[in-house]
Design brief:
The protein has about 120 residues and is α+β, with helices and mostly antiparallel strands. About 35% of the residues lie in helices and about 30% in strands. A five-stranded antiparallel sheet has the order 2-1-5-4-3, sandwiched between helices.
């Protein structure tokens, strides 16, 4: 495994799904916990695509630090714009309803620029 794959695998301990998408809607990384239903597992990438395909949403990313959405089960879909390899990306995680996510997400965001 590469250092980047190790980073994503380590972070998945805290989240249900992790997705990193570039501005051209290319999935750089996507990982989901085993046993998660297909609809939930694909939600982060689909959300990123909707954001990047909407010019208004794209512009809003420049001013946002984080967007948070809840599903009917109380799970949180968290979208955070990040720089990865010198380019803007969107990091999206799906967090379980009963688990804190912010510290683990901040750690992941801090570690992203250090991996290749």
């Amino acid at each position: 495994m590469t250092a980047f794959e190790d980073l994503i695998a380590d972070a998945l301990e805290h989240f249900l799904v992790i997705a990193l998408v570039d501005e051209q809607n290319n999935v750089v990384a996507e990982s989901a916990r085993a046993g998660l239903d297909a609809e939930s597992a694909s939600a982060p990438v689909e959300t990123a695509r909707r954001i990047f395909n909407n010019p208004e949403s794209r512009r809003a990313l420049q001013n946002l630090q984080e967007s948070l959405f809840y599903d009917l089960d109380g799970r949180r879909l968290v979208c955070r714009p990040v720089q990865f390899r010198g380019q803007p990306h969107l990091l999206i995680i799906l967090a379980a309803a009963e688990r804190a996510y912010r510290r683990a997400l901040n750690t992941l965001v801090r570690r992203l620029p250090t991996v290749e």
